[in-house]
Design brief:
By secondary structure, this protein is mainly beta. Helices cover about 5% and strands about 55% of the residues.
Length: about 650
Amino acid sequence: MGNDGYTNYLYSASGATLSPTANLLAGAHLIQYKYSTYQYVYKYIGGDSGDVSWSITDGVLTFEGTGATGYYGSATVLPWDNAYSKIVIDSGVTEIGSYVFKTPSNVTEAVISDSVTTIHTNAFSGFTFKDYDGTTIIDPTATYLKNHSFTGTSGILQLMRNGITVLYKFSDGSTASEDVYQSLTVGQPYNISSPTVTGYSPSSTAISGTLEKSSEWYVVTYTPNTYQLTIRYLRDGNSISPDSVSNVVFGQNYSVNSPNISGFTADITTVTGTMDAEGKTISVNYTPLSYNLTIYYKYDNGDTASATRIESVEYLSEYSFDSPVIDGYTASPATVSGTLSSPTAQSRTVYYYPPSYVLTLRCVDPEDNEIANAATYNVYFNKTYNVYPPSVTGYTTTTYNVTGTMDTEGKTVDVTYTPNNYTLTITYTQAATAAVFDTFTQSIAYNSEYHIESPMLPGYAANHPVVEGKMDALGKSINVVYTIKTFSLNVHYKYSDGSEASPTHCENVAYGSSFNVTSPTILGYVPDYNSISGVMGMHDLDYTVVYNNTFKITIVYVYADGSVAAEPYTATVGYGSTFDVSSPTLAGYTPDRSSISGMMGASNLDYKVTYASASSGGNGGGNGTSGSNDGGTTTILVGVIGVIAAISLILTAVMFIRRH
C-alpha cells in the first residue's frame, strides 16, 4: 500500500485495528476499503491461510481449498478476529493449525468435513466439545471431530448426530423438552412438530424440510406466555376502586399491594402468587371501619342537660339517635341523624331551649300598605331580641334595629319605609342625524307610574309616542327616536270620459322631499299636465292627469294691411277627423284661399286667410292652393299634417283594439 499523504488504517473482519506487522497480513486480501476525510480505511473479509483460503459471509467463517491452514501463536492478531458465529471447515482441508480459533465466546456452531486428518493442539483454543449426551467431553482431535457438526453457545459445542436433531430450549438455555432425533440420509424429508410446553410458546410450531447435510440440527426456543392478572377491589360486590390489570409472564411471581382507601380495610393487603397458564382474577374485599360518634346534650347556656352518648358507627353508614326528653325544654335537634361521611371520629351537640315565639316585622309604606313579605324571627320566651329590619328594594327606613323582650306568645312590629325617588330621563333624537333636539327629566318615586307624551315634530314619527311605565330602583333612561314620515303620492291618468288612460303611478315620498313625475305619452292624446312635481307635505297626495284627443282650429281673416276682414273662425275637431271651412265672401275682395281643409292632428291648428282688393288684380277663389305665401305654406302643411294624422289615427285604433 502506498501512502499519498493520508493515514491508512487496517481493520480485521470484526473491525479491530491491526498492526501493520501482524501475522497473516502478507497473505490476507484487502477485500474492501472506504474513503473518509484524510484517511483510507481497509477491512479484511477474506484472505489466505496456509494452503487454503478463508472468508467471512454473514457471520460464517469458512476455510476452503486443499491442504493445511496456517499455524499461529497464542498472541497472533488474526484478521478474522472474533467476527464469526459459525465455523465451516470445507471438504479438501486436511489440517487445522494451532490457534486458528481462539475466540469461542461468539461461536454457536461448527461443521468439520471428513477430509480433515489432523487437528493440531490448541487449534480450537478455549473451545469445549461434548458428546450427544451433552456431558461427556470429546478430545478436539480429528479422530473425534471430523465429519461431524456441533452446536451450542459460548464455545461449548455439542455433537450432532447424522440425520436431524431438534433441541427444545427455554430462553435461558435450559431444556424445555426432550430432544428429538431422526436418523436420516441426505435428501430425505422430515416434519417434526414442536411439543406443547404449558405456559410457553415455541419459536416454531414444526421443523420441516429435506435433509441437505448429513447432520443437521435446529433449536426451538420456548418463551413464556404472558397472561392477564386482574385484581378487583370490591365493597359488597360493587367496585370501590378501579381494577388493577397487568400482564404477567407465565411462572413469574407477582406481588400487588392493595390500594389504601380511607375509611375501609382490605381483606388482602398484598395480592401475591405465581402466574399460571390461564390468567387470574382475584377479588379484594373492603369493609368499612367504625368510628365513634359523640353526642353532647346541653342547655342553651352551655350547662350539661343529659349524659354524653358515644356510639360506634361504620364509615358511610346512616345513623339516627333520638335526643332524650327533658320536661319544659325543646331539644334541637330532636333526632341526631345523618351519614358518617368522614373516616374520623365525629361529635354532635344537642341544645335544649325553653319555648320560642315568633317576632314578626311588617314592612309597610306611610299609607300602611305592605310592601314586602314580613320578616319573622324565633325568640325564646323572656329573652331579649335585637334584630335588623330587612332591606326593601326602592325603599328606605329610619328604623335601624328593633329591640325588646319576648314577654308574650309572639309579637308583631310595624317598620315604616318611604319610597326613594329616581330620575326618569328621556332624550329625543332624530334618526337620520342622531342629533338630540330635546331632553326631559323628572324625579319619580319608586314604583310610581309615569305617562309622558312625546312632543310633536312636524313630518316625523316617534318610536314611542308615549313613554309610560313604573319606576324601578335604578332610574330609567329612554331614547325616543324620530324618523321622517313618508306619504303616498298617487298620479292617476284618465281620458276625458273618466276611463283609465295609463296605470296609476304610486310611490312613497319622504316628508319635505321633492318629486317630479313625467306624464306618460299616449299617441293621439295630450295630457293637461306634462308632469306632476312639488314637495311632499304632511299628508298623502292624489293627482289626476286628463288626456284629450280634441283640438282647436282657428282661422283669422285679414286684409293685406293686416286689419280684420271678418270674424275669426274657431271650432273643436277630434283627432284624425277631417275639416273643410269655406272662406267668407267679401264684396270687392278676393281671399287667397277659398277654403281651409285637412285632417286634425295631435295639436291645435292656426290659419290665416288674406283678402286682396279685386281691382288690384289679385288671384281670388280657387281650392285654397293659391293665394298668399302664408296660405300656400299653410296648405302644404295641412296636407302633410293630414297624412300624418291619418297614420296616427290608424295606430291609435290598433292600440285601442289591443287595450280593449
